[in-house]
Design goal:
By secondary structure, this protein is mainly β. 2% of the residues lie in helices and 56% in strands. The strands form eight sheets. It has a five-stranded mixed β-sheet with strand order 4-10-9-6-7, with no helix packed on it.
């Protein structure tokens, strides 16, 4: 490679990043010392241990995964002659790929003393060592092609440690627990932590905070951990697939944070998976309560019976007459017959509550006629029975 002194042009590269606050050594003094008077005047020294002076970056530095790498490129003609057809190319390389950030002719002619400046940006999505390669090609006054190349190495670090765990609640509902730890050396502000569900699911965040605590809890100090909880449900039209691998992918976590001077970073996890646990092939769901639930007054609940197996089932419905708190009166609608694979049938149960309070509906009996097997369904639905006026 040619020596930089042999070139008419000079390439300067600077990473654009926010400055930091210059730390101050606290001044400790007695009341009788001269410096004690400064402590009474906040306009002189606002806070001991910190200053209002900003410190510019002293090196190319490191960058965190998910942040946007911004770089300022300046081509200067420091010679007494002009240069023509100046082309600037910048690419970012790591161990797995090369990304071209800029590649075009920036000017046809660069006179002596002139310069051309460009800003490039790129969101970094991989960890490890990255190399920014900048190449300037041009023609000198002798119409010779000249090549000026510079390399800048920096490391992309991991800012957050994200751990997830799922808890299945039935075949169509689960909870996702997420633990996010700040593994940087500076506090960060968690701007957004969203669960983006897959097409099969709906998501509901369960992270409500008191208004007075909300602002404080958005900050995460170095090596602190915060937990987030989400409830995911299968969409009704996908319920018949609940025991298949098609519902294993539940979605992605989208995390946005800011550094102490407002630099934004964004992380998105890979597709999260749930474990498909073995459930009953026949699933009973309560769909709607019809009428008021008052003690000693009958009411009805509309339910569905879904066959999640791969075979058609010949089924018969009955109920346990020994229930005492909420007694069964009748089953109408579908009471017996065949249900094809992945299909449902609706039925209505009539009930009579004996007393007020919170009660669980139990005692449904479903018989698989072909296999001569009886299935008991308890805790189908919980509801509050009101007392009579």
């Amino acid at each position: 490679m040619e020596n930089a002194k042999d070139h008419q042009l000079v390439l300067r590269v600077m990473r654009l990043t926010k400055p930091s606050f210059l730390p101050n050594i606290p001044i400790l003094s007695e009341e009788s010392d001269l410096t004690s008077s400064y402590r009474k005047d906040d306009s002189v020294i606002e806070h001991f241990g910190s200053s209002n002076i900003l410190l510019l970056p002293q090196s190319f530095g490191s960058i965190f995964l998910g942040e946007t790498f911004i770089c300022y490129l300046s081509i200067n003609n420091d010679s007494s002659n002009s240069a023509t057809n100046i082309n600037l190319k910048a690419d970012l390389q790591n161990s797995s790929q090369k990304t071209i950030l800029f590649n075009k002719v920036v000017t046809e002619n660069l006179q002596s003393g002139d310069s051309k400046d460009h800003i490039i940006s790129h969101e970094v999505k991989e960890l490890g060592i990255h190399i920014l390669v900048c190449v300037v090609t041009y023609y000198n006054t002798a119409n010779e092609v000249k090549l000026l190349r510079k390399f800048f190495k920096f490391e992309v670090l991991k800012p957050l440690d994200v751990k997830t765990k799922t808890y299945n609640v039935g075949c169509d509902k689960l909870f996702l627990e997420t633990q996010i730890q700040n593994i940087t050396k500076v506090p960060i502000c968690m701007e957004k932590v969203n669960m983006e569900p897959s097409a099969m699911y709906t998501s509901q965040p369960l992270n409500t905070l008191n208004e007075k605590d909300g602002d404080n809890l958005s900050y995460l100090n170095p090596f602190d951990t915060r937990q987030y909880l989400y409830m995911l449900k299968l969409k009704p039209e996908n319920f018949k697939l609940s025991l298949t691998e098609k519902v294993a992918a539940i979605g992605k976590l989208d995390i946005v944070w800011k550094s102490n001077l407002g630099e934004r970073g964004r992380l998105q996890t890979s597709q999260l998976q749930r474990a498909i646990t073995q459930q009953k092939n026949l699933v009973v769901q309560a769909l709607q309560v019809e009428g008021k639930c008052v003690e000693k007054q009958p009411f009805k609940i509309r339910c569905s019976l879904t066959n999640l197996s791969e075979q058609t089932k010949n089924l018969a419905l009955a109920f346990d007459r020994n229930q005492t708190s909420v007694m069964w009166l009748d089953i109408s609608g579908f009471t017996s017959g065949r249900i094809p694979s992945k299909e449902s049938r609706e039925f209505v149960i009539s009930l009579l509550p004996a007393c007020a309070g919170l009660h669980s509906i139990s005692g449904l009996l479903v018989t698989d006629v072909d296999l001569n097997r009886l299935h008991h369904y308890d805790d189908i639905y919980e509801l509050l029975i009101l007392a009579q006026d």
